[in-house]
Amino acid sequence: MATLYKRGGKGNWIASWYDHSGVRRNRSTRTTDKRAADRIAGKWEADSLLRKEGVIDPKLDSYANHNRVPLSQHVDDYLAHCERAEQAPKAIAEKRRHLKRLLAESGVSRLSGLSADKLETNLAAMKLDDKAPRTINFRRQVAVAFMNWARKTGRIESNPLAVVPRLDESRERRRVRRPLTDDELARLLAVAAERGRAEWYLAAAFAGLRKGDLRRLTWADVDFADGTLTIRHGKAKRVDTIPLHPELAAALKALKVRARAVPLAKVFPTTVTDDTRLKDFLRAGLAREVIVRDDKGEPIMLGKGDKRSPLRPKTRIDPTDDEGRVIDLHALRTTLGTNLARAGVAPQLAQRIMRHETYATTLKHYTVLGLTDTSRAMKALPGVSRPASEAQRATGTDGRGDRHDTPEGERQRARQRAERADGEQGATASTQPIGSGEADDGGKGLETQSLRDGVRHNATSGINGAKGTRTPNFQLAKLALYQLSYRPECACCGIRPRRAKCRPAPILVRSRRTRDPRRTRGQGHHPCPSTSIPPAALSPSPRRSPLPRSSPRRSPGTTSAAGLSTPSSPMRRTTRRPLRRASSTAPPSSSVRPRNTPGAPTSIPAM
Question: I need a surface site. Which of 31, 66, 446, 517 has the fewest CB within 10 A?
Fold first, then answer.
């Protein structure tokens, strides 16, 4: 139970009790009335019992105690935490400036008073003052980071500022960097080489080093043997190793020889300031000199107006172009990212060279491609093929890749064209009897002669091969061997008779694709009114010469007196049918030769 007492017997009553953790607490009730002090002490003791039993969360007491501390004290503690985290001094100074202005403009003094409504009202006031969206988002970022730190350290239960939305910076970007062209970079290096600063700009353009990286770079970080460059204690607080560009490696080697530096010495002992950089930009034609004006638009004059110091307008170097884009030292880093994208480097590789956490940062902020790059990409796209016409699709020449486009199909089409060309020439048949042969034929007959004529034109004779038997081409030899398997046609109508009613015709007058409408399929009927001739009078068809099974069948062509024919045009071979005896009921005709006696020899008209 709580007890009450007074120090020295006078003053306010002091309550003494044990809290939920078992620690004895002494606290003034701030009253001289014992009854009121007894009720206050009972309330404190009851709260301790509720916390001990878990009815009340003890963390609420901690939040309440931190809420009694002034907000400025919490801000100082947060900035001290940033210094212990080894953040950049410039970043810490910007955080201090924005937090102090936020507290002064919003009028809050406790952690509980810094709410989302207060922050949104302050950001809206900044927007009315024509502040850039990037500046407004930075203040929101600093305030949210401060409250996150307070939540992690147990000062508040949750962060109420996390629900404040960000502004879209892409619509109103006040400072947009642009990459340098090859000509501009060459002019800048030429100006800097005259003053001994070319290596500074080369390291920024070919390695993407920031200003702090250039300051901290030592010769121990440059490995000429492996061709690498090590960046320590950078923005990401890690050690990164990137490859050296050949031009940058050559320039650093020459600089090390001139400086006679030790490994722990800095590569750039003197920092190139912003004013010096702007002057180099002006000499290289990357910036221009403009007159500084006051709020009324009048130029600001310098000088006393006498002979020694005449009046002159105040000027400054402006590195912006006609589109409002600026060029600074960080723009050389943007030049590196853009050149990597134009060279076709994958975003993941560009991310490692640029030393970013994600490649989205590389693509969004450090890759600036223009209309020339997009036009080049559009020209590299393949065109759309036109649809094939009906004639092309019918002949199979619509350009589609099928089995006819294979090398085997191409060779087959070449053989077919060669056969058609040979058939259209209409070569005359030889009158030499079968089996006679020439003097050098050796008495081998038509088969050997046909093989000799069908020898491929590009075949070479072997040492052990016989004469005239070099690489026989059965595709050409079949044209001569197939002539023995067909009967001659009618001389008057040009139709091959099914029955022996017409005399044979020496010349083929019908093409492959045409069919005579006079030809019918009647039994023993033929349109020609010739007198029937006995089967014995017709020239018997010799046996068909053996051919390979894979050889196609072709129709006969011109028929000679010996019964041989040469091809005129290829056609589908019809089924051979046996000759039948002519009917004796055929009507006689005066213009036709009289029928011969059966069994008597019949002469065939001369060709």
Answer: 517
Angle at 377 between CA 372 and CA 378, to 5 degrees: 100
Rounded to whole angstroms, the Cα distance separating 99 from 143 reads 7
DSSP symbols for 332-378: HHHHHHHHHHHTT--HHHHHHHHT-SSHHHHHHHS----HHHHHHHH
Whether pLDDT at 581 is above 90: no
Which of 201, 169, 171, 199 has the alpha carbon at shortest distance from 261?
199
Residue type, 289: E
Angle at the Cα of 371 from the Cα atoms of 368 and 376, rounded to 5 degrees: 105
**C-alpha triplet 35, 39, 44: angle, nearest 5°:** 145
Structure tokens at 494: 């040009």
For 108-159, list the strands marked E by DSSP: none
Residue reference for tokens 């723009």: 331
Please measure the distance between the N-terminal and C-terminal CA atoms of the chain and give it in whole angstroms: 149
CA–CA gap between residue 328 and residue 286 (Å, rounded)? 10
CA–CA distance, 358 with 337 (Å, rounded to integer): 14
Q: Return the higher-pLDDT residue of 247 and 529.
A: 247
| Token output for 226 | 């492996």
Please tell me the predicted confidence (pLDDT) of residue 372.
Answer: 75
Sign of CA dihedral 44, 45, 46, 51: positive
163, 144, 140: which is closest to 152 by C-alpha?
144
pLDDT tens, position by position, 314-326: 999 999 988 888 9
Single-letter residue type at 127: K
The total number of residues written for the chain in this structure: 607
**Residue 308: half-sphere exposure toward Cβ, Cα within 13 Å:** 1
What ranges in 388-535 are assigned the alpha helix state H? 390-395, 407-424, 445-453, 474-481
Q: Which residue has the tokens 């050889």?
A: 551
| Assessment of whether the complete model's pTM goes beyond 0.85 | no
DSSP 237-289: SS-EEEEPPHHHHHHHHHHHHHHT--TTSBS-SS---HHHHHHHHHHTTS-EE
In this predicted structure, the answer to whether residue 28 has a pLDDT above a threshold of 80 is yes
> Residue 164 has which token pair?
């404040």
The per-residue pLDDT for range 492-541, each reduced to its tens digit, is 555 555 544 455 444 444 444 445 544 444 444 445 544 444 444 444 44
